[in-house]
Design goal:
Elements: H1 11-19, H2 23-39, E1 50-54, E2 60-63, E3 66-73, E4 78-80, H3 82-88, H4 100-106, H5 117-124, E5 127-130, E6 139-143, H6 146-158, H7 168-194, H8 204-217, H9 226-235, H10 248-259, H11 266-273, H12 295-312, H13 316-326
Parallel strand pairs: 1-5
Antiparallel strand pairs: 1-3, 2-3, 3-4, 4-6, 5-6
Length: about 350
């Protein structure tokens, strides 16, 4: 018996190839290989195996922080490395032979109902082709468009039953991939119709993908700085979170200081987009629903102003007064700034 942990280096490709061949076909190939080794001949190309006419192991497609082998075959089929596809959606680690871990994930009970038969069959029957400069050894890959199908299946499964919290980063990656390639696709379509594709830079689409991936991923980055939480506790009269009798107060404070004051209707809209689950928690961070070009910059500016008021206030009551004067809640009556009695 062969254990996957015992397989190293190029032998991995042999196991992946064997997975899709019948026993008779494997025996025939083994006989030809042995004959070729003893006679000093190179292995012949198997009939029906297409050749890659564009692409090489050195020219990789960058998808987020992952680089994926990609090729164009002689019939125009675009293919991606199965191993690269699973890494792109966040499935790394062991069992990476031709995307075997991806196939295993998609067969799980919480995911399988969202995987259509065409996608399942395509992943179980990958494309075999000849890479440039690799002699007579076929490579195995998936049609490139299947990456989008995989991402859509994960996105749909996210709202279904049994989807684990630990899988959420995969759902985020799937959303990023789908949206970034959709944006690159419309650019490519316009370029093709107008003829600009003939003069544009060869890596123009890659630059578009990189830019959008980075911009979109910024939505998930940390928006509330550590200093905000430190100053919030201080201005509310606490030295640390340990002293809070009810930690839920922090959520109420944030709603009061931020979401009730940043723009009209924001808090209510966030409640609709990000409702509480049965456990009482929200599935996502509210900042994930704010736009990169306007919402996030406005939020950061609001947080900066709030921290200035926290520094200026000497007590919780004074902070509330400064906050209501400088950044009143939408719909609230403004406090008239009467001079206080000395």
């Amino acid at each position: 018996m062969i254990f996957m942990g015992d397989i190293k280096g190029k032998a991995i490709g042999g196991v992946a190839r064997a997975e899709v061949l019948s026993p008779d076909r494997r025996a025939e190939i083994a006989r030809k290989a042995a004959s070729a080794r003893w006679s000093g001949q190179s292995l012949p190309v198997e009939p029906g195996i297409k050749k890659a006419i564009y692409g090489s192991p050195e020219k990789l497609l960058k998808i987020g922080d992952v680089e994926v082998e990609c090729y164009v075959l002689e019939d125009g089929t675009r293919v991606l490395s199965g191993r690269g596809m699973q890494q792109a959606v966040g499935l790394g680690g062991e069992a990476k032979i031709h995307g075997s871990k991806l196939r295993g994930f998609l067969s799980l009970g919480a995911i399988k109902p969202f995987v259509n038969n065409e996608l399942a069959m395509a992943l179980d029957n990958p494309v075999r082709f000849m890479r440039p400069g690799r002699g007579g050894i076929p490579a195995i890959a998936n049609e490139a468009t299947l990456l989008i199908d995989v991402c859509e299946a994960i996105i749909r499964a996210k709202d279904g039953k049994g989807f684990r919290k630990s899988w959420l980063p995969m759902a985020y990656k799937a959303q990023i991939i789908t949206l970034s390639f959709a944006k690159a696709g419309i650019i490519a379509a316009v370029d093709e119709v107008t003829g600009y594709q003939e003069v544009r830079e060869r890596d123009a689409i890659q630059k578009i993908i990189d830019k959008y991936l980075n911009d979109y991923a910024r939505k998930w980055s940390k928006v509330f700085p550590d200093s905000f939480w430190e100053k919030l506790l201080r201005v509310k009269g606490y030295e640390s979170y340990i002293g809070l009798k009810r930690p839920s107060f922090v959520g109420h404070w944030v709603n009061d200081i931020v979401y009730d004051r940043i723009a009209p209707g924001i808090r209510q809209k966030l409640k609709e987009l990000n409702p509480r689950t049965e456990s009482g928690n929200r599935r996502y961070k509210n900042t994930q629903f704010m736009t990169v070009d306007h919402g996030i910059p406005e939020l950061r500016d609001h947080l900066s102003k709030a921290q200035v008021l926290m520094d200026a206030a000497s007590s919780p009551k004074e902070f509330d007064r400064l906050l209501n004067r400088s950044m009143p809640k939408f719909g609230d009556t403004l406090e008239i700034p009467f001079r206080e009695e000395e």
